Amino acid sequence: MVKIGIILGSTRPGRNGEAVARWVHDVASQRTDVEFELVDLLDYKLPHLDEAIPPSMGQYQQPHTREWASKIASFDGFVMVTPEYNHSTSGALKNAIDFLYAEWNNKAVGFVGYGSLGGARAIEHLRLISAELQLADVRAQVSLSLFTDFENFSTFKPGEHQVEALNATLDQVQAWSAALAPLRAV
User: Does pLDDT of 186 surpass 90?
Assistant: First the structure.
């Protein structure tokens, strides 16, 4: 069975991302042919990148890096839930991504963004990062607007059409994760 990690990419106190990630997980968990797990960056105490050897060498020295690597290696694909901060993704998510290399390779990734423009610019930055890590980003995405999908910019109330966008994203992540399995077996 394909296993997809839903990565909550914000660690900010009072973050909107927690409600968004739980919504993604709730919708995804209705599927019976894929296993989904919510991965909260708050549960992984990753300081600013503190490994002396580049991640592409796979010689992780720090216990927190080895724990993070083990978690990411356990998945076939990902859905990254990202806020948009200053026209990009969060520093916490970028840092978590940068800790590893091979654990991301030949897996699929989809994006759920939120912000004033639906997290579009954060998602575009993550697509560029994904290419370098040999992550296959899917075309479908979810863009949640702080103006229309949140009440008072803080209470998450997604429009009905967002479930359709999420299911399209999940479909593509599932299909690509399965299709890439032979590459991960090499």
Answer: no
Residues 6 or more apart from 160 whose CB is under 8 A from it? none
Q: CA-to-CA distance for 16 and 20, rounded, in angstroms?
A: 7
Dist CA 105 CA 113 (whole Å): 22
* 8 Å CB contact between 55 and 72: no
Please name which of 99, 93, 37 lies closest in space to residue 64, comparing C-alpha atoms. 99
Judged on CB neighbours under 10 Å (0-12, 13-18, 19+), 86 is exposed
pTM of the predicted model over 0.85? yes
Neighbouring residues of 151: CB distance < 8 A, sequence distance ≥ 6:
157
- Tokens matching residue 6: 């839903």
Cα distance between residue 140 and residue 134, in whole Å? 18
